[in-house]
Specification:
Aldehyde Dehydrogenase, Chain A, domain 2, seven-stranded mixed beta sheet, Aldehyde Dehydrogenase, Chain A, domain 1, binds NADP nicotinamide-adenine-dinucleotide phosphate, binds magnesium ion, five-stranded parallel beta sheet, alpha/beta, 2 domains, 16 helices, 497 residues
């Protein structure tokens, strides 16, 4: 490890990288049974990084069989929780030891700035694995206050075979939010990464094995399109934990209903409001935060503060500050540690976002940005973009998942709450005020799984449950509550006499 991790260091690492693209089933890297692959493309410059196994029914069956066998054997599920803790801690340590390699893989694959993958994605995944490992030997069951002739116990047991289907915006981190609690609780896991960003998941499986997670307990089945559906329909998968779009989330639930009624947990999209009241304690900080809330990670954030609601009395002054901040989010080379904004994940997503920009141009008022950039030849880059909109405009209602901010003006706090809640989504929301009563009143009225007051996107802390109201999903990732998703509750009644 060098101490000076400059642009050249990361470029060298990227060039030297050996990239694995095969599936990981029952403790081994294997090609798809069909031999089929799909190209894994870097959005930095559009080049093919490697070919990745395209898993279909035969591979999914093999992974499920390995997971079932390992679960039934009890070699993981039956371990003393302290032993599982030790292995999970070792696993977290290996993620940290391999931080640079994992961060470069993530940056190459998803276009995320290296400064983010080294400070958020990979360390966040290691922290998550460690946190659930540390927790698992500390959570017990209940002794129920039953009749004297009974002893009543309520315990939690692993569900069995858990499938995790995850998106591309935080590939390793969203995966860890699922596989860490699922593994800690004693389940056997099959992880299906997004076809747009499968590389870190593929690498992480080997580190899990190296840490001591037995073969078959953690499997990776990359695929394009159909692989997740096969898992959702599988009769021997007991639970599917999904993060992704609301449209696919609905299909996952239908697949669960069509097959074996597997538990289906959904973390879905958002269109989160960020409300600036006239008594906002610090307009400069609020403007910088509002820009970060939509431009961080190229706006490819489920919690993106994509609707900025500003009180009319401060609107002009505040929007001017936001535009000043937006100008700082110029895309750069994702491997350059000074880059704040990287590449959009692929040409499909870029076109989707540009489609929304077009809709915005015809209906709303463009304040800045809106154009594709050739930051690096062949890559997918977009200017930070801000529109002034009416709350009913298309770009103010639909999740764009790109660096496009909609500014909406309101006249009083009740109107702001009404606009904020007038959405199919309910993932996150924020309010800025100096008044404690207003802060609590508004927070209570906002229909969202997370509410921030005088901040945005705080909460890297694993103690906070994360998930949505309404069509943003069900269940929660992170915190001890996440263990509820991966365990069955059992009542045991013992008659004494
Ligand atoms: P997506 O298109 O729904 O895909 C998510 C995953 O599902 C991918 O692995 C995808 O595989 C797979 N998939 C696609 N079609 C499927 C089907 N019919 N059945 C089963 N699986 C299927 O979402 P995305 O574009 O990757 O991610 C962006 C979305 O994720 C946004 O809506 C964002 O808000 C949401 N998100 C939510 C959270 C949260 O915690 N609430 C966090 C991050 C992102 P392929 O790639 O192979 O098609
Ligand atoms: Mg990619």
């Amino acid at each position: 490890m060098t101490t000076n991790k400059d642009f050249a260091y990361w470029q060298r690492l990227a060039t030297d990288l050996q990239i694995e693209g095969r599936a990981f089933i029952d403790g081994q890297y294997v090609a798809a049974a069909s031999g089929k692959t799909f190209p894994c493309i870097s959005p930095i410059d559009g080049r093919v990084l490697t070919q990745v196994a395209e898993c279909d029914a035969a591979d999914v069956d093999a992974a499920v069989a390995a997971a079932r066998r390992s679960f039934e054997s009890g070699e993981w599920a039956g371990l003393n929780p302290r032993q599982r803790k030790k292995v999970m801690t070792r696993f977290a340590g290996l993620l940290r030891q391999n931080m640079d390699e994992l961060a470069v893989l993530e940056t190459l694959d998803a276009g995320k700035p290296i400064g983010d993958t080294t400070s958020v994605d990979v360390p966040g995944a290691a922290y998550c694995v460690e946190w659930f490992g540390e927790a698992i030997d500390k959570v017990g069951g209940e002794v129920v206050p039953a009749d004297h002739h009974l002893v009543g116990l309520v315990t939690r047991e692993p569900i069995g075979v858990v499938a995790c289907v995850v998106p591309w915006n935080f590939p390793i981190l969203m995966a860890a939010w699922k596989f860490a609690p699922a593994l800690a609780a004693g389940n056997s896991v099959i992880l299906k990464p997004s076809e747009k960003s499968p590389l870190t998941a593929i690498r992480v499986a080997q580190l899990a094995l190296e840490a001591g997670i037995p073969a078959g307990v953690f499997n990776i089945v990359p695929g394009a399109g159909n692989t997740g559906r096969l898992l959702a329909l599988h009769m021997d998968v007991d639970c599917i934990a999904f993060t992704g779009s609301t449209a696919v989330g609905k299909q996952i639930m239908q697949c669960a209903g069509q097959s074996n009624l597997k538990r289906a947990w959904l973390e879905l999209g958002g269109k989160s409001p960020n409300i600036i009241l006239p008594d906002c304690p610090d307009l400069d900080r609020a403007a910088a935060t509002a820009a970060g809330a939509i431009f961080y990670n190229m706006g490819e954030m489920c919690t993106a503060g994509s609707r900025l609601l500003v009180h009319r009395s401060i609107k002009d002054a505040f929007v001017a500050k936001v535009l000043e901040q937006a100008a700082k989010w110029v895309p750069g080379h994702p491997l350059d540690p000074n880059t704040g904004m990287g590449a959009i994940v692929d040409h499909i997503q870029l076109d989707r976002v540009l489609g929304y920009v077009e809709a915005g141009r015809s209906e709303s008022k463009l304040l800045t940005g809106g154009s594709r950039l050739e930051t690096i030849k062949g890559g997918y880059y977009l200017e930070p973009t801000v529109f002034e909109v009416e709350a009913h405009h298309k770009i103010a209602r639909e999740e764009i998942f790109g660096p496009v901010l909609s500014v909406i003006t309101f006249d009083d706090v009740d109107e702001a709450i009404k606009i904020a809640n007038d959405s199919d989504y309910g993932l996150a929301a924020a309010v800025w005020t100096s008044n404690l009563t207003t802060a609590h009143d508004v927070s209570r009225k906002l229909r969202a799984g997370t509410v921030w007051v005088n901040c945005y996107d705080e909460g890297g802390d694993m103690n906070f449950p994360f998930g949505g109201y309404k069509q943003s999903g069900n269940g929660r990732d992170k915190s001890l509550h996440a263990l509820e998703k991966y365990t069955e509750l059992k009542s045991t009644l013992v008659r004494l006499r």
